Amino acid sequence: MKIMISACLAGVNCKYNGGSNRNERVIGLCAGHQVIAVCPEQMGGLPTPRVPAEIRNGTAVNAEGISVDEAFRRGAEACLQIALRERPDLIILQSRSPSCGVKQRYDGTFSGTLVDGSGITAALLIRHGFRVVDAGDI
Ligand code: SF4
To answer: Which residue numbers in the chain have pLDDT < 50?
Structure first.
């Protein structure tokens, strides 16, 4: 099986704060399979560490009020192109991220409030018919 995952789940330090979201369950599930690790925010050109961002009124904005939507869309498109080329059987993405979140994301107020809905990359992959699972469900 071919599995695409958020790179931070594999322990890559690509998270906004310079850390990772290493997830032993996801790593265990990937054992013996072909894995493609992607970080849409880095692929969109954002640095690590970076100012955290959330989605407000449908666009990505960081905690300093600066739009990072263009970078988020570029990264999402890059992930989509890889997915279209590699045709992964399963995509597992990090929970609650404004890029990778599948089921929930923060509401754009930077107050820790969650709302239903996907991040920009997850939404794009779902729209194209890929099987996308939230890491929290593994
Ligand atoms: S954009 Fe996705 S892969 Fe990159 S750090 Fe955030 S959750 Fe992880």
So the answer is: none
pLDDT per residue as tens digits for the range 78-87: 999 999 999 9
Q: Is the CB of 44 under 6 A from ligand 1?
A: no
Percent of the chain exceeding pLDDT 90 equals 100
Q: What is the pLDDT of residue 62?
A: 98
Kindly report the three-state secondary structure assignment for every residue of 41-99. HHHCCCCCCCCCEEEECCEEEECCCCECHHHHHHHHHHHHHHHHHHCCCEEEECCECCC
Q: DSSP 3-state assignment of 104?
A: strand
Give Cα separations from 9 to 16, 25, 26, 118, 129 (angstroms). Answer: 13, 9, 7, 17, 22
User: How many other CB atoms sit within 10 Å of the CB of residue 1?
Assistant: 11
Residue nearest to atom 6 of ligand 1 (CA): 15
Res 121: pLDDT: 98
Strands 90-93 and 132-134: parallel
Pocket test for ligand 1, best of 20, 21, 43, 99 (most atoms within 8 A of CB): 99
Q: What is the pTM of this model?
A: 0.97
